[in-house]
Specification:
The protein is α+β, with helices and mostly antiparallel strands and about 575 residues long. The protein has three domains: about 180 residues, Formiminotransferase, N-terminal subdomain (Formiminotransferase-cyclodeaminase, Chain B, domain 1), CATH 3.30.990; about 160 residues, Formiminotransferase, C-terminal subdomain (Alpha-Beta Plaits, 2-Layer Sandwich); about 210 residues, Formiminotetrahydrofolate cyclodeaminase monomer, up-and-down helical bundle (Four Helix Bundle (Hemerythrin (Met), subunit A), Up-down Bundle). The strands form three sheets. Strands 1, 2, 3, 4, 5, 6 and 7 form a seven-stranded mixed sheet that branches. A four-stranded antiparallel sheet has the order 11-12-8-13. A two-stranded antiparallel ribbon has the order 9-10.
Length: about 575
């Protein structure tokens, strides 16, 4: 799985009728490399367009700024009317963590973006939700209260001074709210009924808001009030969940339409399971479900692993197989084919044109290695040997988890398979990274060396690239060594019919360690900092010694078990 940081941006622009304006805004978004435009959803009645794009954080913020700038040039709020609350040309601009990034990190990006919009475009900007600077500003409705028409008065109130930009009324642009929030998933659960009322009943059972308490008849009776005259509501079973029932004529079924506003609180699979449970209690059955828009990969992996755990199956399997289990378990392909390449954010953003060694066939990889090019070389092959060794350990763990008569031990072996899969995945990444490190050195040597400044910059670039080219195989060494624990345990306690596979795995990762150390030594020889060199060599020698010792232990276990089978 990729370790690239990804965020989503979902700006709402106060224009939903003139598509030439919207096209100019989305064009500037698409002009930023590293950003992928996913969806453009205009609404005539609301006179508002919701745009969704995803990418790496700095690039997403650059695209968001360009879009806000273009919107400020093209949209005149003094002439705007629409059904949706609004107070600016770029009305709201939330940033959303997608993968490998924390909410705290996204908050920093959101405030930085808000500051840039306010200062460079010179109009009021408020920060909301997780990016809010005070509690009352967390709620978007509070920030936008009074809407565009109320801005002149609002900006005179010191308690509503903008977080960034001038506290001055800009009649053309209005104001913008920039926020950081969790990923929202639009998700529909299919029911074996045509009744909207029954679908609504399930929706009210699960949504956080729940349903009102009624006096007398629980359907038609008046809503009960407390001593202050406020309506009394019974909350539903799921937090961070909004839901309603509706009938979809296209499919001839009723659905529970769900918005999961924080999948860290209520994950996708939890919503599916709870909707299924509540439907069954009402004599209904969930037949499948439907994802509207896109979903983060982790949400699908969490779902797949949840259902594998329910089946008492190992979760240390290929990513695509985990995704397949999620799709089949939740019936995401009931109404239409579910294509992970078009529905999972990370897969959408994957660069299909990038040439990677790991995308080659075994034959292609071997021939590429055998060619007259110096890369890939021993470093990539060391990582590859380690990855295959870890894969063998993972295989033994998975076979053990699935072995007849060992059902009660499935979790024990699933945990070992997860560990092995982790090492395998990390080593696979390093197959290409070792070649990339070599290319960095070549690029550094190709820098100009005319002036003294150029010579100094070139020398520093060479040293930086050489250090990185030393760190990569050193990381291969450590991962290979750590993965040996999987092979040892599988030789000791795993499926005895596969004990030799654990042994071959140990041989492979041992070779990965020793091969990678050769690369550490030759690359470190180019480093001027001899203290750093000594540290690499000392720690490397220790890892090699420990690995060889572990390999000997594993092979002794393997040989003993082979002898005992005779």
């Amino acid at each position: 799985m990729s370790s690239v940081k990804l965020i989503e941006c979902v700006p709402n622009f106060s224009e939903g009728r003139d598509m030439t304006i919207i096209k100019q805004i989305t064009d500037v978004i698409e002009s930023v490399e590293g950003v992928r435009l996913i969806d453009v959803d205009p609404g005539k009645a609301t006179n508002r367009t919701v745009v969704t794009f995803v990418g790496t954080p700095d690039e997403v913020c650059e695209a968001a700024f360009r879009a806000a700038k273009k919107a400020s040039e093209l949209i005149d709020m003094s002439k705007h009317t629409g059904a949706h609350p609004r107070f600016g040309a770029t009305d709201v601009c939330p940033l959303v963590p997608v993968s490998n990034i924390t909410m705290d990190e996204v908050v920093v990006y959101a405030r930085k973006l808000a500051k840039r919009i306010g200062e460079e475009l010179n109009y009021p900007v408020y920060c909301y939700e997780n990016a809010a600077t005070e509690e009352k500003r967390r709620n978007l409705a509070n920030c936008r209260s009074g809407e565009y028409e109320g801005l002149p008065k609002k900006l005179q109130d010191p308690s509503w001074k903008p977080d960034f930009g001038p506290a001055q009324y800009n009649s053309k642009v209005g104001a913008t709210a920039v926020g950081a929030r969790n990923f929202l998933i639009a998700y529909n659960v299919n029911l074996n009924t045509t009744s909207t009322r029954r679908a609504n009943a399930v929706a009210f059972d699960i949504r956080e808001k729940g349903r009102p308490v009624r006096v007398g008849n629980q359907v038609t009776g008046k809503i009960a009030l407390d001593e202050r005259g406020n309506e009394i509501w019974n909350p539903g079973s799921l937090k961070a969940c909004k839901a309603i029932g509706w009938f979809i004529e296209e499919y001839g079924i009723a659905q529970v339409s769900i918005n999961l506003t924080d999948i860290t609180v209520t994950p996708l699979h939890v919503a599916f399971e709870e909707a299924s449970k509540k439907a069954q209690e009402r004599g209904l059955r969930v037949t499948g479900s439907e994802l509207v828009g896109v979903v983060p990969l982790q949400a699908m992996l969490d779902a797949g692993k949840y259902f594998l755990n329910k089946q008492q199956r190992s979760t240390g399997i290929a990513e695509k197989e985990i995704v397949k289990i999620a799709v089949k378990s939740m019936g995401l392909d009931e109404l239409a084919p579910f294509d992970p390449e078009k529905k999972i954010v990370e897969y959408i953003l994957r660069d299909k044109t990038q040439k990677r060694l790991i995308d080659l066939t075994i034959d292609g990889f071997a021939n590429e290695t055998a060619s007259e090019s110096p890369a890939p070389g021993g470093g990539s092959i060391s990582a590859c040997m380690g990855a295959f060794g870890a894969a063998l350990g993972t295989m033994v763990a998975n076979l053990s988890a699935h072995k007849a008569g060992w059902d009660e031990r499935w979790k024990e072996f699933s945990d070992w398979a997860d560990k092995g899969k982790f090492y395998m995945d990390e080593l696979i990444k390093l197959i290409d990274e070792d070649t990339n490190a070599f290319n960095k050195i070549m690029d550094a040597f190709g820098l100009p060396k005319g002036s003294d400044d150029e010579k100094s910059a070139r020398k520093q670039a060479i040293q930086d690239a050489t250090l990185y080219a030393t760190e990569v195989p050193f990381k291969v060494m450590k991962l290979c060594y750590e993965s040996m624990a999987v092979m040892k345990s599988m030789a000791e306690i795993g499926n005895p019919n596969s004990v030799t596979d654990a042994g071959v795995g140990a041989l492979a990762v041992r070779s990965g360690v020793i091969g990678a150390f050769l690369n550490v030594k030759i690359n470190a020889s180019g480093l001027e900092d001899k203290t750093v060199v000594a540290k690499f060599l000392e720690e490397g020698e220790t890892i090699v010694a420990k690995t060889i010792s572990l390999e000997k232990e594993v092979l002794e276990i393997v040989e003993n078990k082979i002898m005992n089978k005779k």
